[in-house]
Specification:
The chain has helices spanning 2-6, 12-35, 61-72, 92-98; strands at residues 42-46, 75-79, 101-104, 120-121. It is of the alpha/beta class.
Length: 133
């Protein structure tokens, strides 16, 4: 977006990439709806920060994912070990115990080794199982 602003808002490739990136949460939810009955599920989002290893939530797509899932699911639980400014976050153990489905929203290294009974949607391939959506 900075490049577009510098070039009189004439940077279609950059604007297209922003559009694709911002549409990712909608795409993920659409794919989840094809595989799961979200209406009856509690979905846990692992990681709410903008990028791995950070506490910065500005422009984080995990929050956009959370807003969309709130309309589609019975309940949405979120956790992040780095974020301290969101009072709605719950501990990781609680998210793992209560969720019917997990989505890795931010690829924090600690999520690579989690043990979960629920399916894990890993769009980052953090767990080296291939991308699953």
């Amino acid at each position: 977006m900075q490049l577009a602003a510098f070039n009189n808002n004439n940077f279609p490739l950059g604007q297209a990439s922003v559009s694709v990136n911002e549409g990712l949460p909608l795409y993920v939810v659409a794919r989840l709806e094809q595989r799961f009955d979200l209406r009856s599920m509690t979905v846990g989002i692992l990681g709410m920060s903008f990028k791995a290893g950070s506490d910065d939530i500005r422009s984080s797509l995990s929050y956009k994912l959370k807003r969309i899932l709130r309309f589609k699911c019975a309940q949405v639980l979120c956790t992040d070990p780095f974020v301290t400014v969101d009072p709605d976050l719950v501990p990781l153990d609680e998210v793992l115990d209560r969720s019917d489905l997990l989505v890795i929203g931010t690829p924090h290294a600690l999520y690579a080794q989690i043990e979960a009974d629920a399916p894990v949607i890993d769009i980052w391939n953090l767990r080296n199982d291939g991308v699953r959506v």
